[in-house]
Structures are given as structure tokens and as C-alpha cells.
Task: inverse folding
């Protein structure tokens, strides 16, 4: 089971912690399996990233379904812009996704860029 | 009108909807990381439709089975006229499985109707005695609902369950 | 052991031994059925005078009548000195409860190569005319079931109300056709096989209608069970069936006429039709 792969979890967690420390706009983050299991997380007191992570897996799966319906190739990322912040969900590979959250509403570009960059890094690290 | 299929992982919810839907089912299936035998598992929803006369339609929603997706249960349950809980008869404690879903959907079941489909049975025609435990459970919970053995791959079988649910709804109007 | 009359949702009045046993079995499996007559069951509260025929028939009705009218059973017995009063009672009962009157297999139409005869086997003391009056003068649901079908025969039909009994037998044959005995009888009668259905379907049809609580008279044949739950158990294995046809037929419309949510009923009707189409296609 992917969430019991200690090496994978350790590597993924290291990268996630680096991401959060390098980009201080990111207040919460998680890596989840495509079927909704938490691999690792960084969370504030505001949210349970285990729960948010599972929701993220549902959402990106639904986005994939919609993308297929629209015949637009593969879903690259999912951006959820809200009144009080932004969440981004990006596929790491076919089995994992990364979710990042900021409460700075003007930082979409930064959040998206940082998350994409680390999604690639994590993919390379675990392959 | 909207029916919601729910029930434990591997009970056949997605298959049941695919079997009867008039449209290609919208599914959110992912490879499960904890079940090597199962090809895919639903992580958000399944959606199918039955097209009825004069442009009406019955919407068929399937929920994810795992409780970690319980937020989807609530989202999908809003406005449903009927619920179908599928129970995998081969699981160690199928009545406990049923109880888990009955409890979680309790607030919606007071306003709508329930039918229970028992799947993974060796012989759906010889199930009467085996169904008693489900009836007893429902009786204990003071819930009046049909319990039928079904094969989610068989349109006739799934339709039967939908018919039973429809009868229940009509009764309670 | 027995639900009281006041508590019962459905009252079963059973007029012969076999169907009494069936009704009792059904009662034992459902809190919603009260059996108000059981020839061999002397322990239930509605049974007053063991024995057969009209006396017992009357005593049972008297007992219910007493309950409905806050009388002692002994007072009520006197209320049934005519069929008019019996009819009045039936309508009173019908307005209060979903009532099921079981005849078993004991009404038979016999064709002896010369003429048709209607024979009532039990209660023996009641005349055919009395039964006919009972059945035809009340607005029970018998006639709702299907329209009379013309019979191609050159024989003299002696009974004046043949068309009524034709309806009745279409109705009753739903219950009885699966009995070998009745199949033989029907064959002798050149009876069209339009309602020759297996037992399970019969049970289902009964149960479905019982659940609707909307009709009043039918037969319970020898092996029938009318547990309410069984509709769901049987529906699986017998769904080519008359059940759906019932549900989507004009009779069903009559059954549904008092439904509060017309829009939803209409949608459910469409759903029934759709499900039936899927069935036929699969």
C-alpha cells in the first residue's frame, strides 16, 4: 500500500516540508493518494489536512473526469480561488497529488508555480 | 428525481449504475492503494441517468464507499428521493456494514426511502432465509425497507431493486 | 398473540380453512395483519363459536361489528339478520380498515359440457345469490381489476350475473391458477389462460396491492403467503409480471387516485414504465 511505503513517505514528507519552508505564503499542504489516503501533511490549527487532502483527491478526480468529458487532454492543475485564500491541487503522478493552501489572495501565481515545481521534484524523487 | 447508491467498498455501486444508465456513466474511479484485487474505487461520485417519458429523468448517483469520503455522502444526498444501500454479503459483518450506512444517512432517510441490495450472493434465488438478518436489523431500527439479493451486473436484477424502491416511495407519498 | 382489531392496519377475513391458515401464517409474520376468523384456531379473540358455515361466518362478523360499534358481541349477533345489514357492516369495516376477504379456492365456476354453474363450496349454508349480492352490490374493488372479456361459447349461461362472475374469476384466478386442481377446472371450462400465473407472482401481486391497502376482496390460494415483506423477496424472481402491469394499469390509476403529490406520482409512473422496459430488454 502506497501510504505504508516508508521510503516514499519519508521522501515525500521531506519535500513537502521544504516547500512550506521555502515559500512562506503556503500555510497548509498535503500529499494524498489518488484514492484519498494521506501520505504526509503540513497543517495549521485552522484545518485538518487529512480531511482536506481526501477532499482534494475527490476534486482532482472529478476534474479529471470533466477534462476527459471535454476532451482536453489531462487535467494539469486545479485552482480553487476563494474569498479568503487559494488552494491548488496538482497531480504528482497517477497515484499521488499535492495540495497547497495560502490565505494570501494575491499570491496565486506564486502558489501555483511553487506547487508545480515541487510536484515535479517529488515525482523525480520517488520514481 | 434522484436516487443515491451507497454502501461499502466493492459492493457494486458503480457497476449497478453502469448496468442500467442510459448515458455513459460519469465516474471518478481511481486505483485503490489498499486493495490489490479491486481494479478501481470511486473517490467522488458516479453519475448515471434513466431517461423517462416526456423528457423526465431519474438521476442515479453513486457515492464513494469509504467513510473518509463521508463529505461526499452529504453532498450527494441532498434532495434525493430514494437511497439504495448495497451490502456485500461475503464481507465478515454485512449487517454492521449496513448499520454504518444507515446511521450515516439517517438524517436523509427520515425524509426519503430506502432499499437494500445484497450483493455477492452465490444464488440470488435461495436467499430468503439469509435475508432475515437484514430484515431483523431494519426492524430493530424501525425502518421499513425492501431487502433484495441482486447482481449489480444484471440489468434485470438492478431494475428490480429500483422497482422495489419506487414502490416504497409511492407508498409513502 | 393477536393484534387487536383497533391496532390492526389490515384485517383479514378468511372464509375457509386453507386460506385461514394462510392468513394466520401471514399474521404471524406481520404485525400489521389481524386475522379475524380462523376455523381451527380457537384461541384468537375474534373466534366465538366453533363450527362451520353461516353461523360461524356471522359470529365473526358480529364480533367485529361489536368492536366497531362499542357493543357486546352478543348484542351484535342480532345485527346480522339480513344481508343488507351485512353489506352495511362491510362498508363500515372497509371505511375503517384495509380489509381483505379471502375465499380460498372455494368459489368455482363449473362447466359440465352443458351449462355453467357457479358453486360456492364454503360457507355451505350461504346461497349463491347471497354471495352474489354481497360481492356485487358493494363497491369493492373486484371490478376494478380488469374489464370483462367476451367469451366465445355457444352454451347457455344460466346465471344472470355471468359478466360479474367473469370479472370475479379473472380476479380470483390470479390467486388460484397455479393450483393443479384449478388448472384442471379452468381447462374444463375452456378458460383463457390470461391470468394463469405462478404462485410467487400471485403472492407478489397480492402483496403489492396489500401494501397499497387499496383493495378489498381477493382470494388466498392454498400455498399463498401475504407477508408484506415478501413482495420484495418475491419481486426478484418473478418480474415479468402482472405486478408492474398492475402498477401501470388503469386499475393502478384508480388505486393512486388519492395520492397527494400528483407530480411525483406521475414521475413514479414513468419510472415504473421505464423499469419495465429495461426488464423486457434484459
Result:
Amino acid at each position: 500500500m502506497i501510504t505504508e511505503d516508508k521510503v516514499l513517505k519519508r521522501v515525500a514528507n521531506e519535500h513537502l516540508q521544504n516547500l512550506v519552508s521555502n515559500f512562506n505564503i503556503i500555510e497548509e499542504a498535503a500529499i494524498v493518494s489518488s484514492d484519498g489516503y494521506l501520505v504526509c501533511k503540513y497543517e495549521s490549527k485552522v484545518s485538518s489536512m487529512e480531511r482536506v487532502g481526501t477532499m482534494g483527491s475527490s476534486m482532482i478526480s472529478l476534474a479529471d473526469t470533466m477534462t476527459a468529458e471535454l476532451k482536453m487532454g489531462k487535467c494539469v492543475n486545479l485552482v480553487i480561488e476563494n474569498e479568503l485564500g487559494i488552494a491548488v491541487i496538482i497531480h504528482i503522478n497517477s497515484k499521488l497529488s499535492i495540495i497547497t493552501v495560502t490565505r494570501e489572495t494575491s499570491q496565486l501565481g506564486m502558489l501555483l508555480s511553487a506547487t508545480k515545481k515541487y510536484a515535479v521534484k517529488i515525482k523525480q524523487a520517488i520514481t | 428525481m434522484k436516487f443515491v447508491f451507497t454502501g461499502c467498498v466493492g459492493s457494486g455501486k458503480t457497476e449497478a449504475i453502469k448496468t442500467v444508465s442510459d448515458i455513459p456513466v460519469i465516474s471518478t474511479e481511481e486505483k485503490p492503494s489498499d486493495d490489490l484485487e479491486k481494479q478501481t474505487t470511486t473517490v467522488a461520485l458516479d453519475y448515471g441517468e434513466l431517461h423517462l417519458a416526456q423528457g423526465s429523468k431519474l438521476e442515479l448517483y453513486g457515492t464513494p464507499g469509504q467513510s473518509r469520503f463521508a463529505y461526499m455522502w452529504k453532498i450527494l444526498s441532498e434532495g434525493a428521493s430514494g437511497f439504495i444501500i448495497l451490502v456485500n454479503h461475503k464481507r465478515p459483518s454485512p449487517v454492521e456494514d449496513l448499520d454504518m450506512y444507515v446511521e450515516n444517512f439517517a438524517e436523509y432517510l427520515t425524509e426519503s426511502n430506502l432499499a437494500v441490495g445484497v450483493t455477492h450472493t452465490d444464488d440470488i434465488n435461495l436467499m430468503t432465509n439469509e435475508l432475515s438478518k437484514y430484515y431483523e436489523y431494519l426492524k430493530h431500527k424501525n425502518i421499513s425497507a425492501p431487502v433484495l439479493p441482486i447482481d449489480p451486473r444484471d440489468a434485470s436484477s438492478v431494475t428490480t431493486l429500483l422497482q422495489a424502491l419506487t414502490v416504497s416511495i409511492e407508498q409513502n407519498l | 398473540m393477536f393484534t387487536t382489531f383497533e391496532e390492526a392496519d389490515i384485517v383479514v377475513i378468511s372464509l375457509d380453512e386453507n386460506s385461514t391458515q394462510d392468513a394466520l401464517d401471514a399474521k404471524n409474520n406481520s404485525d400489521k395483519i389481524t386475522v379475524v376468523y380462523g376455523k381451527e384456531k380457537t384461541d384468537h379473540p375474534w373466534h366465538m363459536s366453533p363450527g362451520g358455515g353461516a353461523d360461524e361466518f356471522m359470529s365473526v362478523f358480529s364480533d367485529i361489528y361489536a368492536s366497531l360499534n362499542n357493543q357486546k358481541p352478543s348484542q351484535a349477533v342480532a345485527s346480522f339478520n339480513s344481508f343488507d345489514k351485512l353489506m352495511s357492516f362491510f362498508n363500515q369495516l372497509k371505511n375503517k380498515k384495509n380489509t381483505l376477504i379471502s375465499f380460498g379456492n372455494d368459489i368455482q365456476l363449473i362447466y359440465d359440457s352443458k351449462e355453467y354453474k357457479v358453486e360456492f363450496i364454503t360457507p355451505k349454508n350461504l346461497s349463491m345469490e347471497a354471495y352474489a349480492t354481497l360481492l356485487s352490490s358493494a363497491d369493492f374493488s373486484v371490478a376494478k381489476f380488469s374489464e370483462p372479456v367476451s367469451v366465445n361459447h355457444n352454451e347457455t349461461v344460466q346465471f344472470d350475473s355471468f359478466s360479474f362472475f367473469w370479472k370475479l374469476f379473472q380476479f380470483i384466478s390470479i390467486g388460484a391458477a397455479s393450483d393443479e386442481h384449478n388448472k384442471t377446472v379452468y381447462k374444463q371450462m375452456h378458460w383463457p389462460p390470461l391470468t394463469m400465473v405462478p404462485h410467487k407472482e400471485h403472492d407478489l401481486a397480492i402483496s403489492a396491492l396489500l401494501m397499497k391497502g387499496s383493495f378489498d376482496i381477493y382470494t388466498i390460494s392454498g400455498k399463498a403467503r401475504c407477508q408484506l415483506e415478501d413482495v420484495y423477496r418475491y419481486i426478484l424472481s418473478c418480474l415479468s409480471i402482472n405486478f408492474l402491469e398492475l402498477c401501470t394499469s388503469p386499475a393502478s390509476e384508480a388505486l393512486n387516485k388519492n395520492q397527494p403529490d400528483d407530480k411525483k406520482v406521475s414521475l413514479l409512473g414513468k419510472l415504473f414504465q421505464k423499469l419495465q422496459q429495461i426488464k423486457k430488454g434484459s
